[in-house]
């Protein structure tokens, strides 16, 4: 471990990239992951995001060496670790459950693995002191787990991983057992910890807020397949398919069925009594006239306009006050459209109100396969 003399921030002396190639994992007759590739750069914070059962924890555990792969390879730091023992992979894993030894103090929990491995006493003291300082555990070192709050216990579990000074840190939904306030606090601490350590981290969650706030890049998974891998901003603004579009965002992306009208150099979306010029967009393949498609627009790009004279109107069906904004739901020709209203426009359920779509931030998807056009 080194220290940047200009900033005084600790930086990781050892970090490694992770390369997963053509990975297949079968559990019994069930194929959980099939032909999966993943590249994690050294020092990145990569989040594996997806619904329950999508294979994200299975992928993480295979990197840790807890699950045998059926086909493919796993490299850590340029070395083939596909069949290496977990202890030889230079990884540290933090589970969803704290898994602390109830009869040991915080200090003994932090140092247990080091003592078992025969690490010199002075080195153990140095590593425990560094981890407890990073995670603000100093005043708690003599306490037992039963004397700690849930957030403090999770910090101890994270500290137990840090003392190993691993090349790669793996987190399997470490915050899911905490209440909302503690999750927010620990999420911030994890991000700051990554900034201080500079270490490679791979984090599993089904919580999109955790993914968006923590990740340098995120992999959205479904049924054992990575649907999209990119920065949170890229994945949110330009979802690769309908699954990603609807999985991210709260409320999720509004979807409207329609067709493309192609006339000369002009391309328009027509559907749900909506007409949008989409000529500015670069299509992956030349669109055809009459091609069925789905238009997607984020709720923050739907703007309600009280008092505006427009044929594009919806009836307010629901209002959800969120403190700093309101979510206004509009019934538009039988379609429910969500609008995030930062101005908290004074409207009531049943009002007929005009709305406008910011066509600079729309997405178009193939109706049949769901891929981005």
UniProtKB/TrEMBL annotation:
Keyword Nucleotide-binding: yes
Transmembrane segments: none
Enzyme class: hydrolase
Gene3D superfamilies listed in its UniProt record: 2.40.50.100, Nucleic acid-binding proteins, P-loop containing nucleotide triphosphate hydrolases
Coiled coil: none
SUPFAM superfamilies: MOP-like, P-loop containing nucleoside triphosphate hydrolases
Entry EC number(s): 3.6.3.20
The name this protein goes by in its record: Sn-glycerol-3-phosphate import ATP-binding protein UgpC 1
Organism taxonomic ancestry: Bacteria, Pseudomonadati, Pseudomonadota, Betaproteobacteria, Burkholderiales
